[in-house]
Amino acid sequence: MTQGPVLIVGAGHAGFQVAASLRQHGFGGRIALINDEAHLPYQRPPLSKAYLKGTGGPDSLMFRPDKFYRDQNIELITDRAIAIDRGARKLDLASASSLDYGHLVLATGARNRLLDIPNANLPDVRYLRILDDSEDLRRRIASSKHVVVIGAGFIGLEFAATARIKGLEVDVVELASRVMARAVTAEVSEYFQGRHRAAGIRIHLGVQVTGIEADGGKVTGVSFSDGRHIAADLVVVGVGVLPNVELAADAGLPVASGIIVNEQLLTADPNISAIGDCALFESPRFGGSLRLESVQNATDHARCVAARLTGDAKTYDGQPWFWSDQGDDKLQIAGLTTGYDQVVMRGDPAQKAFSAFCYKAGRLVGIESINRAGDHMFGRRLFGMDRSIEPAQAADPGFDLKSALA
Ligand SMILES: Cc1cc2nc3c(=O)[nH]c(=O)nc-3n(C[C@H](O)[C@H](O)[C@H](O)COP(=O)(O)OP(=O)(O)OC[C@H]3O[C@@H](n4cnc5c(N)ncnc54)[C@H](O)[C@@H]3O)c2cc1C
Q1: Residue of the nearest CA to atom 27 in ligand 1?
Q2: Mean pLDDT over residues 159-172, rounded?
Q3: Beta bridge mates, 354
Q4: What's the pLDDT at 55?
């Protein structure tokens, strides 16, 4: 059991959960959650989904009301952590104060990758990561006519679908040859391309935005690498994120495409862990280093670290899963759908309900489900039991998936 204060930098999904789980596990020492956003800890996924569409206030996003933090004696500190003195076990904050720690948890998340083209810093060029971004985009959706979305990843497409539902003209520009290319199978990309196009969204694949045109500081359009121009009064950029590793790197901790942690999520310093979007963790299950950007990863990491700090050290062995809501469609992913060599379809895209079962060397490694929550839940349970089913079984509509869980 860790003695002394636990300081947590970042109060996103990972930071909040580690604080809550520490108390659940009976940790009685000081817990301080340091965050540079002036909100109670809140959920991020609705920012590009229900919250963007709706009229509810920020309270609807909060994990817990402020009473929870008082009752649980979890200190919320709105400040920015700027340096770690590992020798003295002190964390320096931007407000010039410094805090002692027994254990430090880095849950610093990720920030948007910024566009580096002319006029990219104009006020009508927006990103979507934090609550303030979503609030701002809600207002802009109401006052804009034509948005160009740069990047057809999850967030770009979720935003595009909402903007279209709200009546905007929408163009999506993507450098790759299909949408969500790094994350899903070609079958699922094709389905979503069709659905978004049917909703009236124009999707431009294999092109790059080379410039943003403006008049008097207001965006008027964008130009493409193929010479085309598209009129627009709003540009939304979703071209990926960069993990916030600088605090760790400046303290001399090893970083690569994330803060490097071992299979127990511990950095090279036994008094510092790193979790969630910022952590590049060693995964015996998947045989290598992984950095994932999902709520499941953040919260399961947090639970693993809270357990270790209260005397129950284990190898992190979370089962990845993810979801994305785009228009009327719900995409759910169980497992890791990378590195597969065979895709087996179950269900019917024409019926708007199907799953892509992804196999690697004959073993099921992931399932991408569209409007088939049963397949998704099956996948999560199956992977939790370390089992697989044969490709022929997955393809056979008469095969009862539940029988594989018995
Ligand atoms: C719009 C949007 C939609 C998403 N939708 C989904 C979805 O549908 N499903 C899904 O699984 N995942 C989704 N994600 C991803 C998911 O939200 C992230 O994986 C998750 O938030 C990661 O949690 P985290 O705590 O690691 O990091 P974050 O949530 O990024 O939190 C880190 C916090 O630390 C703060 N911070 C960083 N550095 C410092 C510092 N030095 N001092 C103080 N504070 C600091 C940051 O400001 C931030 O508030 C979505 C993300 C976004 C942005």
Answers
A1: 109
A2: 97
A3: 347, 370
A4: 76
Q: Residue 366's beta-bridge partner residues? A: 335, 358
In this prediction, what percent of the chain has a pLDDT beyond 70? Answer: 100
Whole-number Cα distances in Å, 30 to 23, 103, 285, 374 = 10, 11, 34, 42
In the numeric block, the tokens 């002692």 are attached to 100
**Residues constituting the chain:** 406
- Mean model confidence pLDDT for the chain: 96
Q: For helices 154-165 and 186-198, what crossing angle results, to 10°? A: 20
User: CATH classification of 6-111+242-309, choosing from 3.40.50.2000, 3.40.50.970, 3.40.190.10, 3.50.50.60?
Assistant: 3.50.50.60
Instruction: Give the E-state strand segments of 313-360 in sequence order.
Output: 321-326, 329-335, 342-348, 353-360
- Measured from the Cα of 47, ligand 1's closest atom is 1
The 3 state secondary structure assigned to 234-250 is EEEECCCEEECCHHHHH
Query: 266 pairs with which residues across the strands?
Result: 273
> Rounded to two decimals, what is the model's pTM?
0.97
- State how far the Cα of 195 lies from the Cα of 200, in Å rounded to an integer: 9
Question: Terminal CA-to-CA distance of the chain, rounded, Å?
Answer: 38
SS3 content of the chain, % helix, strand, coil (to 5): 30, 30, 40
Phi, psi (deg, nearest 5) at residue 252:
85, 10
Cβ-based neighbours of 257, under 8 Å, separated by 6 or more: 243, 280, 291
Which residue type occupies 79?
Answer: D
Residues with CB under 6 A from ligand 1: 9-10, 12-15, 34-37, 44-45, 47-48, 80-81, 107-110, 128-129, 155, 244, 247, 276-277, 293-296, 298, 322-324
Evaluate the CA torsion angle 44, 58, 107, 315 in order and state its sign: negative
Residues 28 and 216: their CA atoms lie apart, in Å, by 58
Token readout for 267 is 């950095």
**How many angstroms separate the CA atoms of 138 and 337, rounded?**
33
Report the nearest atom of ligand 1 relative to the CA of 14.
25
The model's confidence at residue 196, banded by pLDDT at 50, 70 and 90, is very high
Calpha distance 51→150 (Å, rounded): 21
* CA 40 to ligand 1 centroid distance, Å: 14
Q: Are 382 and 389 in contact (CB under 8 A)?
A: yes
Distance 63 CA to ligand 1 centre (A): 13
Residue ranges per domain, the chain?
6-111+242-309, 121-239, 328-405
Domains 6-111+242-309 and 328-405 share a fold: no
